[in-house]
Amino acid sequence: MEISEPRRNQIFKKPLNYFQMIRLIFFSIFLFFSTINVSQQNQKINDTISLDAVSLQALKIPLQEKKSMYPVSKLSFKNYQNLTPQLNLSEYLENIPGLVILNNNNYAQDARISIRGFGSRANFGVRGIKIFVDGIPETSPDGQSQTDNINLEIIEDIEVYRGNNSSLFGSSSGGVISINTIENFNKDFVNIGYSSGSFNTSKKQGTIGLINGNQKMIFFLSNTKSNGFRSHSGYENSNLNFKYIKELNPNNKLKIIANFLNSPDALDAGGLNLEEVQSDRSQARSRNVQYNAREKVKQYKIGVNLSSIIRKLELTNSIYYNKRLFDGKLPFSYGGIVNLERIFWGYNLNANIKAGLNYDFGLSYNTQSDDRQRFMNDSGLKKDQVMGQNENYNNISLYFFGSKSIKKLNFSTGARLENNSISLDNYFGSSDEKIKKINSFNPSLNISYEFDKIDFFTNFSTGYETPTLNELSATSSQSGFNDDLNSIKSTTFEFGVANFDKDSKLNFSLRLFNILTKNEITPYQTSTGLVLYNNAGKTIKKGLELELKTTIFKYLNIDYTLTSGSYKFDSFKFLENDYSKNYMPGIPKSNQNLKFSYSNNKNLNIIFSLKSVGKIYADNANNTEIAGYNSIGFKMSKDLTLFQQNITPFISIENLLNEDYFDNIRINAFGSRFYEPGSGINFVCGLKLQL
pTM for this structure? Predict the structure, then answer.
């Protein structure tokens, strides 16, 4: 590994450009298919980006217009479920333009997801992006999400809404990820799976689907263990999921979902400096070992959804309850052990009316209560309490959405009014009560026009994002309230062109966006390892998103996505430093994904994929630049019949080039401990049995 530091630390490994990617993958495909007798009657792997009309499932808003008005990628899954180890959400989302996932292998910190540059600030978990499962929020009202309790094995489809969606979904600058689990089956089934792979990774899972007249039930259970690629990075979690569906009558449908997560241990290896990376990429930071940095989580969730049709009116009522118990150890002494009890629940009512104009009205209420306690961390042992406070977040909102098609012209508009109230009661030591009010009004306008099967579209949208309770409570004294931390406000202008004709050999979508943001939230780290947050003035995010989809020789599907952008601080001064015109850290300048999918009538499924990630800055000063990397993946499965049972063996291999890369970048880390190395070549193989 070559290192040069004239102005910046650089790792000079350049990602492949588009033409290099094409040549490399086509060569691999040629070699592979030269050994296969290809059938002319083929099935296609149903895992590609859909270019059909979409519906806003998270709000149950149907849209009959072409999806070109909205920056939406819809993915549906069938055979793809048998090709993946299903260990993290990136397996499903890596081909979404504008979306980047880091930290796939540090289960103590959870995945970091950013869309169009929003969400990159997250020190752990997901910020700025709302996540729904079966219409029920995984995101707490203050805007923080975790993905550890999402059951990947039972996902039926995913819709990703990119960019400002506050007019529809409230506090979410980056977008929305809406996940729907399986329910479209017509007979009882039992699926059992077992997989094992690198780093002593193993997963056991089982799914049961039952039908009784107008009722359906789905039970799912899984257990996952791994030692991790790095020292002190092992984890274990168990997931239990239940889903109940009943057609009460032709006009009324009831859904109940429940989930339990138990993650008894997830170790945090921490960030390394460059010298440590060069010495041993798999080592853990010494302080993380000394203070036994890790987390333990239990989570309980239940949600109820009732949809009713009354003539031209469709009503959807949903209510949910979520309780999350978190015990964490951080790599420092004072306040280095955190106990958090988080309870949040909410209600949403949506009314869809089809009367010439298709429009929706909605009301939602969400509330959250955090009981946060900190203790001394004596080399992993819990000692004296140093902080205790109750933090509360309440949200009430009204929204409107309307759409209309006039021949080839489609338009929609929406608006959302929100009132947020944040309060804190410091019950440990001296009393300290604080209240913060945040109101927001966010409109949007979308227009598209179809010209000779080509859609031209433009939209204007606004967004806002409140700080999370964790960010507001992050102070140098580790107690109290950061009054100076304000909400992010953004405005997006977007233009594009697309071809969604199903008869076309090539489907494509090209979008250009420009996002102006005020009060961007950025993290920084103190010498003790404590992560704090501040507002970064103004930023400008602009770029393009390209989607391509085609079929070659009837048996080969090709999907290509490209994201290229410039994400900069426009005006940002902090302490004595001026970061104006610098690039925002933690966001790659480019991201390319190329996927070749093959499936024949003998139930053989194969995927070659190539990911190419551009360079990333690690700090606000742009003093450390981390070069991009390339990663090739291979997946294969084969459906077999053995003793009258359906069995599917599969294998998944990642990082075939054995590339040195970084799975995560810790932004503005003290002591230049930015680096969390990713693993070299690794694999998972397993069996899935259908009874």
Answer: 0.90
